[in-house]
Amino acid sequence: MMELCLPMLKYNHKKGAQIIKTMKVAVLASGRGSNFQSIIDASKRGELPNANVKLLIVNKKKAYAIERAKKHNIPYYFVESKNRKRNQFDSEMLNILKKNKIDIIVLAGFMRILSPIFISEYKNRIINIHPSLLPLFPGAHAHRDVIEAGATESGCTVHFVDEGVDTGPIILQQSLAISSLETEETLAKKILPLEHKIFPKALNLLSSQKLEVNEGKVTIHTD
Ligand code: GRF
Question: Roughly what angle, to the nearest 10 degrees, separates helices 184-207 and 142-149?
Answer without folding.
Answer: 120
